Amino acid sequence: MQVILTGAPGTGKSALIAELATRGWDVREEVSRQVIAGEGLTPWDHPATWALACAERMGRNRAAATTLRSTLFDRAEMDLWAYLRHAQIEVTVESALMGYAADALIAPLWPDIFQQEPSRPQSWADAVALDARLREVYAEAGFTLHEVPLGSVPERADWVEEWLEARGALRKDAA
């Protein structure tokens, strides 16, 4: 089972993914941060080139995920489509799950934890707009989004673990 965790910038996805990794879950960190840091491509300066670089890495991550256990992905290709739409680049959304589970997780907007960072200069208004694009694109692609409740990182991780286990997900040490 390959499950996506999506959400606008500053919603706590990376902290949640890191916590789940310490609990024995197979996770794939956000590739867009890697592309920004390693290649200097950003969704606000070079959206199309950035999306292509991210898509290539996401495809490799997906191909490397084993079918013997569950993998959680910090973002997926649909996030790229949402960012491109946000940049006013027309994108036709494919109605295909691409090997991911049809149920995906979304970290909702949360003003109390939102922060701008040097590697993520989006404003709160940008985050609100991106949240709307993400929800739109995931729905068009055939996904059902399930909101991760607000709370501490351990509380959110507890909820995600219960959600995953209720769907038969396996930790990496279970395979």
TrEMBL record:
A Pfam family recorded for this sequence: AAA_28
InterPro entries xref list: NadR/Ttd14_AAA_dom, P-loop_NTPase
All copies of domain NadR/Ttd14 AAA, residue ranges: 3-156
Name the UniProt record assigns to this protein: AAA family ATPase
Species annotation: Actomonas aquatica
